[in-house]
Amino acid sequence: LDYQHVQVPFEITLWIMLASLAKIGFHLYNKLPSVVPESCLLIFVGLIMGGIIYGLNDKSPPVMDSDIFFLYLLPPIVLDAGYFMPSRPFFENIGTILLYAVVGTIWNVFGIGFSLYGICQVKAFHLQDVSLLHNLLFGSLIAAVDPVAVLAVFEEIHVNEKLHILVFGESLLNDAVTVVLYKLFRSFCEMPTIKSVDVFAGVGKFFVVGLGGVLVGLTFGMTAAFTTRFTKDIRVIEPLFVFLYSYLSYLTAEMFHLSGIVAIIACAMGMKRYVEANISLKSHTTVKYFMKMWSSVSDTLIFIFLGVSTIGENHEWNWPYICFTVIFCLIWRALGVLVLTFFVNRFHVNTITSKDQFIIAYGGLRGAICFSLVFLLPDFHRKKLFIAATTVVILFTVFVQGMTIRPLVDLLAVKRKRESAPTVGEQIHIRFLDHLLAGIEDISGHWGQYYWKDKLEYFNSKYLQKILLREYDQPKSSIVLLYEKLERKHAIELAEAGQLGHAPSHPSLLCSGFLCSNNDRTVITDKKLEDTLNPDVLENIQEILARNLYRIRRTGPAYNRHTLPGETEPVEHAKEILILRHKSL
Amino acid sequence: LDYQHVQVPFEITLWIMLASLAKIGFHLYNKLPSVVPESCLLIFVGLIMGGIIYGLNDKSPPVMDSDIFFLYLLPPIVLDAGYFMPSRPFFENIGTILLYAVVGTIWNVFGIGFSLYGICQVKAFHLQDVSLLHNLLFGSLIAAVDPVAVLAVFEEIHVNEKLHILVFGESLLNDAVTVVLYKLFRSFCEMPTIKSVDVFAGVGKFFVVGLGGVLVGLTFGMTAAFTTRFTKDIRVIEPLFVFLYSYLSYLTAEMFHLSGIVAIIACAMGMKRYVEANISLKSHTTVKYFMKMWSSVSDTLIFIFLGVSTIGENHEWNWPYICFTVIFCLIWRALGVLVLTFFVNRFHVNTITSKDQFIIAYGGLRGAICFSLVFLLPDFHRKKLFIAATTVVILFTVFVQGMTIRPLVDLLAVKRKRESAPTVGEQIHIRFLDHLLAGIEDISGHWGQYYWKDKLEYFNSKYLQKILLREYDQPKSSIVLLYEKLERKHAIELAEAGQLGHAPSHPSLLCSGFLCSNNDRTVITDKKLEDTLNPDVLENIQEILARNLYRIRRTGPAYNRHTLPGETEPVEHAKEILILRHKSL
Question: Where is each Cation/H+ exchanger transmembrane domain found (chains A, B) (predicted)?
């Protein structure tokens, strides 16, 4: 037996296997995950495993290595979050999100730090040796809402898109603030005296860290998009570039002490649309699938490790400090949300309701980032107290808040996410209104979001697409995609009704897709269609659709080591059938 | 700047990126890869990079770590090879493959070892200090044909399936022999005296290593298949299990000093058919795609590292020893193939032609396995000579043989791989003949391959499928799959001819798929079909097809963190359209 030789990969594989099997286990009992969030179950599994390890070895089980967390476990989750980020609600609410993320986090850090310092002054609690700086340092790591925990809970409760993006966006973007404040206070702790210059340098650093992250991310994202222009002949390694470039953006940002989370999100959001257009459908399925898989495994491992690391002798228990930490975390977050939302609502027509505010405040979960940061603290005599307090806050937010938030959302009847995709009618109207608003903003000289969006779109189609896309003259708009989907759906409906044989040749779909909404579609015959639309316009529409939809089937060699064996893609074929049917009319 | 912190993942990512970009680079110039095999180009890139590193640092560039090679780079390639192994030709030729792999490799080891020992006795060459055991040890590592190198070259030249599987199968299965002989001679080198007991133990060990590997692999493969029975609710982590279990089988085999390559191949071949049936179509696309991607990256890295590691001061040059090694490798392989094929041909009707024999002998490429093994040798004063000889043999086989084999295949007009998939007619006939031959073997009391295949198939459908498949009563035979494909093809043809509107409702495809071959299909109308086939039979066929093809569309929740967002699978939809059309008749 030669265990030493294979130990590292063997143990990593076994941990991942355990995590995956635990996940399968929960889903076999359908009732459990519908009551308790998966994150709680996973922490629970971790606690049990930690208990077993502790019981057997009689020493503390290994704690999650902060390096492993930040270098290997966190990036997949953030990449997944960035890649699947719904960009429209995100950019529509970017101001509010930034306000919560930056001002809100700073508010929480100082609020928690100062009030805990106040508690430390009470002689009965025996905490007078904890300085203000240490309290602020602790505040800086405990204040930040954790994206992993938020994602794990919010994706299961299906609140409306705006609410989701507000909490989730905040949890992602506050990383820049956390990085800056944490490093600032940590270096202050080691400095003999603090000059006011240092404080100003800290404020300046915040912009560098945040904007630097965005810049690094966008650079790598554009490079990734550019690279996928040339992968036509080796489809098989296409997905690789998506992962490699985003990971490099994260590592590069970390290397320069910028915000890695912000970088990887900028990279993913920047490259998504170009990469999607350049790579093959199967490659894209692989990218999406693998991203989901990877982030799912990462987050499972994080919660299990969180559980395992909780067990042991790393803790120093001090009732008042720990209890007040939990209370201050709740109070300052609630106050922060109330105050900030008051200002936000003054400048917006579409206000944040008080129910939404409650869920935003209540959804401020803490997680593995705090946990990793507290272990990265320099050694000082109260570190174990901080570890204990952090652990309690995490467990409290994940278990108590995480488990009660779903019933609360039900109880308050918070507006849920709409289940159906927007209809063509809606899409056309939204787009139309965007153009209209951009025009109004242009005329009135107001540089609002629509103005910038319009400018960006112009820049994109004028320069970026030409450089980054392989076939830049064939952009696939969401309407064309929707048209394809409707076409398919309609064919199924006809087939189900047994009408395909009898009335297959009227292009009712073309008009129904364009003119009517999905739900109350009325079948318009050939005759009526021609009456409704100007023939020129109709021809134009058909030409656009045909050009966008048709793809020549590639006839490659039968076997090639760079491609998967056999058959051209069935989806392509299926598309073609439907498209050609229209062509043949 | 904090490079230390991110060094390990950053450098790994950069290496992979370099490798992938090099690959893209070659494919941009279409002419280059069609003349020079990719493996040569990659080694060349490696040589240049090694030269640059050597020039800049003035010390030898790092050599490929044997541990990294065996633990991380080799498994993906072997997994890919095993998973996509065409099982029918493999099992049909398993006897011949094993003969080449076992007897052939032993022949080569002893042939090369003894004749090099003979060379060492010539005083003029100054090699008298190389003992017989050391020569045999060297023979054991240099004799084995390398799967990575073989795959890289043979997949580009498209020889016929039998020839391909003979060379490729040999290169995979000889691992067991190599492991045993290499470890045997290495331990003999360290023993003071060798008893005859040790030699017999070595022979016995061979069976343990080979069969043990198969057993470990099958165990993990079946467990993997069983696990995927329960992943219905979390499709996203399905692909993970395929990778985890196969990697575990490899590591476990290595841990017990069994053949990891044999284990991972047994695992992949064993689980493939069950996993494929259990997991979703998208998961399977991801599995296939990622396997190809991973193996492609691995093999790119291997060849680049091979190039880099060649540069440096690890070599001791001795013209006679190195030249004779190359010559003996060629001669003994050619002799071995000739002698073994002579015996094989006596027992087979379908003989191996002399052209095929030449290609088998000429295709005996050496690669990174030899290279890693020679670095794993215990230190002794002639190790550098062995390293030099191994490097030269690898470069000679990869460059000279690898580059000339394609023109030779053209020149000799070796039978190529057939480009088209077998027609339904052929498939039915092959299956029919299998049953017939199994029956004949049963009656004549001969336990041949068909008898065993039949028994295995019975055991599979009687027990294994019930345990391992989620829906074991719905096996998807290749005929049904072909039917789907033809159905789609036919619909496209109709659409292209503009006939879909006019004559969409005759089920001509059903009969054309079943009765006629793909090429000379004649359209048979409803009437004719009913005349040709007994109505009962027809109904039965339709019923089978309908049950196998139809799938109820799942309507899941709109968003779930374990699934990909949106839309049910378009392939499923497209299928349904076509199937329902038939149903509605």
Answer: 17-409
- The alpha-carbon gap from B363 to the nearest alpha carbon of chain A, in Å, equals 17
CB contact under 8 A, B67 and A257: no
CB A142 within 8 A of CB A325: yes
What Rg value do the Cα atoms of chain B yield, rounded? 27
B416 three-class SS:
strand
Using a pLDDT cut of 70, give the percent of chain A over it: 79
Percentage of residues of chain A with pLDDT beyond 90: 23
Distance (Å) of CA A406 to CA A36, A151, A299, A420, B209: 9, 14, 20, 21, 55
- Listed as own residue / partner, the contacts of B28-33 with beta carbons closer than 8 Å and 24 or more positions apart are B28/A230, B28/A233, B30/A233, B33/B156
Q: A1-5, A245-249, A486-490, A518-522: which range is least confident on average?
A: A518-522
User: Quick one: closest CA in B to A497, which residue?
Assistant: B584
| Complex prediction ipTM | 0.75
Structure tokens, A149:
């925990």
Give whole-number Cα distances, A258 to A44, B2, B388, in Å: 34, 11, 47
Whether the CB-CB separation of A61 and A307 falls below 8 Å is answered with no
* Residue B56 burial class via C-beta count within 10 angstroms: exposed 0-12, middle 13-18, buried 19 and up: exposed
| Side-chain half-sphere CA neighbours of B273 within 13 A | 17
Cα B59 from Cα B53, distance rounded (Å): 8
- Picking from B406, B417, B562, B578 by the largest number of A CB atoms within 10 A of its own CB, the best residue to mutate is B562
CB under 8 Å to B17, separation ≥6 — which residues? A244, A248
Helix, strand, coil % in chain B, rounded to nearest 5: 75, 0, 25
Show residues of chain A in contact with B30, CB under 8 Å.
233
Split at pLDDT 50, 70, 90, the class of A485 is low
Which bin fits A394, alpha (ψ -120 to 50), beta or left (φ > 0)?
alpha
| pTM, two decimal places | 0.78
What is the rounded CA–CA span in Å between residue A333 and residue A325?
Answer: 12
pLDDT tens across A385-438, in order? 999 999 999 999 999 998 899 889 889 888 877 766 666 677 778 878 888 888
Nearest CA distance, A245 vs chain B (angstrom): 8
Taking only the tens place, the pLDDT of each residue in A74-130 is: 999 899 989 988 888 898 888 899 999 999 999 999 999 999 999 998 888 888 888
Indicate whether A377 pLDDT > 60: yes
Residue A292: closest C-alpha in chain B: B236
Query: Domain residues of chain B, as ranges?
Result: 3-412, 424-470
Instruction: Please name the residue of chain A whose CA is at the shortest distance from the CA of residue B492.
Output: A577
- The closest of B581, B132, B213, B160 to B409, measured between CA atoms, is B160
Residues of chain B with pLDDT under 50: 500-531, 546-563, 565-569
Question: What H or E segment, with its residue span, contains residue B95?
Answer: helix B94-98
- Nearest Cβ partner for B84 among A67, A489, A565: A565
User: Where does A3-412 sit in CATH, by number?
Assistant: 1.20.1530.20
